């Protein structure tokens, strides 16, 4: 007679599965709460202590860790020495293990949970059993996902046993599960010990979403989510309308949200190919949208929009005048939603807590042969803002300089942008030298550059950028400072009565 060991925390579907397994002639062994549920539902089940000849001890910490269990799982059925040894020791075969683990993930995410409770939800026997069964998949079926019950039963009903292909597939899921489970535990202890960069790095992601393709149609792609910290993110967004997000949609939407989170007042951010093409703040969202749109009325076509206030009918009408791939906001009025969803190809996302900023996570970049890990760039300014020119910025200039400094954090380096009235009017991005970025921003701003201010993510290595800005009529500059030629730039700014502020911190973005 075939025997199955069933011990599950998540009891979804387990009664019907066990009933059918019993009907097919399997003997069922079980533990604790699972034994009670199966027994109460009229299933003939054997308590595990009858198999181990030993009671559960230490408040259930030890119940399946026994040779009578692991011997029955791990022996090779075609190895005569293994078979004889089990006969000698009177150990019965265990041909199926059905187990899912203590809810460590759910426990560690609970508000106010104690360290003691977290520790008690680290499963020991479960991982040992399912790893043993997965290692011996040639002979043993192991199930950790209730979604696999039907597949297993179908094969047993049709063939009397599961196929090797299915057992190997189920074993794969076990090792994915235990690796993920252990990574959660390791990361919990890393946080406890304030270890920022552990010697061995384990990253935990789940809920895979297959994407149509990656950055280009010939690249396969998928999207994985973190276990928590989903508030205010693309991963936690609620899709109200439109097709599934593409790889580029997700990447660009994340870029828009990263920039948006720098601003507290009503703000709209437009992004195209991971770079902002317009950012505006105003007394209300309508004003903010107009400012963002007017920065670059061409590039915004087919772009991503993110707003940090409820989108109303007026804003929705303006958005619908052009083609936008994705719109994100914390909420929408009914009329606004009706207007936006009248277009088939727009994705409308609701992002609860869109203003959330406190993410204790890291930026991760994959390179050939390794991973780069760094803290997120959350620090806006250095120890102090330092005016280094003869003329100080006016209050109006300083307001725009600080707006620009927040905005330029989201621009790919070398990056600069021109600002007027809390709106970007010209953006220079992703250049290999600073002057090209400055010249591009001036060109894109046109006549609006006069009396504007400029923010630069890195210092000016030469005075040529200041010369170009003076010629365009720019009146104030904010930049990190720190070049060996800072004095030349300061002198050039003084020559043209330009105010210059050093932040003492740079914001490269590659």
Automatic annotation (TrEMBL):
Recorded catalytic activity of this chain's protein: IMP + H2O = 5-formamido-1-(5-phospho-D-ribosyl)imidazole-4-carboxamide; (6R)-10-formyltetrahydrofolate + 5-amino-1-(5-phospho-beta-D-ribosyl)imidazole-4-carboxamide = 5-formamido-1-(5-phospho-D-ribosyl)imidazole-4-carboxamide + (6S)-5,6,7,8-tetrahydrofolate
BP terms from Gene Ontology: 'de novo' IMP biosynthetic process
Organism expressing this protein natively: Keratinibaculum paraultunense
Matching PROSITE patterns: MGS
Gene name, Swiss-Prot/TrEMBL: purH
One GO MF term: IMP cyclohydrolase activity
Domain MGS-like: 1-144
Keyword Transferase: yes
Keyword Lipoprotein: no
Family indicated by similarity: Belongs to the PurH family.
Record InterPro entries: AICAR_Tfase_dup_dom_sf (IPR024051), Cytidine_deaminase-like (IPR016193), MGS-like_dom (IPR011607), MGS-like_dom_sf (IPR036914), PurH-like (IPR002695)
Swiss-Prot/TrEMBL domain comment: The IMP cyclohydrolase activity resides in the N-terminal region.
Pfam families in UniProt: AICARFT_IMPCHas (PF01808), MGS (PF02142)
Pathway listed: Purine metabolism; IMP biosynthesis via de novo pathway; 5-formamido-1-(5-phospho-D-ribosyl)imidazole-4-carboxamide from 5-amino-1-(5-phospho-D-ribosyl)imidazole-4-carboxamide (10-formyl THF route): step 1/1; Purine metabolism; IMP biosynthesis via de novo pathway; IMP from 5-formamido-1-(5-phospho-D-ribosyl)imidazole-4-carboxamide: step 1/1
EC number: 2.1.2.3, 3.5.4.10
GO cellular component: cytosol
Annotated keywords: Hydrolase, Multifunctional enzyme, Purine biosynthesis, Transferase
Name of the protein in its database record: Bifunctional purine biosynthesis protein PurH
């Amino acid at each position: 007679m075939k025997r199955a060991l069933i011990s599950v925390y998540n009891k979804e579907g387990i009664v019907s599965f066990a009933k059918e397994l019993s009907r097919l002639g399997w003997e069922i062994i079980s533990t604790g709460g699972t034994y009670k549920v199966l027994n109460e539902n009229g299933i003939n089940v054997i308590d595990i202590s009858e198999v181990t000849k030993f009671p559960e001890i230490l408040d259930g910490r030890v119940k399946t860790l026994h040779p009578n269990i692991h011997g029955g799982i791990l022996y090779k059925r075609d190895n005569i020495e293994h078979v004889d040894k089990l006969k000698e020791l009177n150990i019965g075969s265990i041909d199926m293990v059905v187990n899912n683990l203590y809810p460590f993930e759910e426990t560690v995410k609970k508000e106010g949970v104690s360290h003691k409770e977290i520790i008690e939800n680290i499963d020991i026997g479960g991982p040992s059993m399912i790893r043993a069964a997965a290692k011996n998949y040639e002979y043993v079926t192991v199930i950790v996902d209730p979604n696999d019950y039907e597949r297993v039963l179908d094969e047993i009903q049709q063939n009397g046993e599961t196929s090797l292909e299915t057992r190997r597939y189920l074993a794969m899921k076990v090792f994915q599960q235990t690796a993920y489970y252990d990574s959660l535990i390791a990361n919990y202890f890393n946080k406890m010990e304030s270890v920022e960069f552990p010697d061995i790095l384990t990253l935990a992601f789940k809920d895979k979403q297959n994407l149509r393709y990656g950055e280009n149609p010939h690249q396969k792609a998928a999207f994985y989510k973190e276990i928590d910290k989903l508030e205010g993110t693309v991963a936690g967004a609620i899709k109200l309308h439109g097709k599934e997000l593409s790889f580029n949609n997700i990447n660009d939407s994340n870029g828009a949200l990263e920039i948006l989170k720098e601003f507290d007042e009503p703000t709209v951010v437009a992004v195209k190919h991971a770079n902002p093409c317009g950012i505006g703040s105003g007394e209300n969202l309508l004003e903010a949208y107009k400012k963002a749109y007017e920065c670059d009325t061409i590039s915004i076509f087919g772009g991503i929009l993110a707003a940090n206030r409820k989108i109303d009918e007026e804003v929705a009408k303006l958005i619908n005048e052009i083609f936008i791939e994705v719109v994100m906001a914390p909420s929408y009025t009914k009329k606004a939603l009706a207007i936006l969803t009248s277009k088939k190809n727009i994705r409308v996302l609701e992002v609860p807590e869109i203003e959330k900023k406190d993410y204790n996570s890291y930026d991760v970049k994959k390179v050939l042969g390794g991973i780069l890990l760094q803290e997120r760039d959350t620090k806006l300014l250095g120890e102090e803002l330092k005016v280094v020119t003869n003329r100080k910025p006016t209050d109006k200039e300083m307001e725009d300089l600080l707006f620009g400094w927040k905005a330029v954090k989201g621009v790919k380096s070398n990056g600069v942008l021109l600002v007027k009235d809390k709106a970007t009017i010209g953006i220079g991005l992703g250049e290999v030298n600073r002057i090209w970025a400055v010249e591009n921003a001036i060109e894109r701003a046109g006549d609006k550059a006069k009396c504007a201010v400029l923010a630069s993510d890195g210092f000016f290595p030469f005075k040529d950028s200041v010369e170009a800005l003076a010629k365009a009529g720019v009146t104030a500059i904010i930049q990190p400072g720190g070049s060996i030629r800072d004095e030349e730039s300061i002198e050039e700014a003084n020559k043209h009565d330009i105010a210059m502020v050093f932040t003492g911190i740079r914001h490269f973005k590659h």
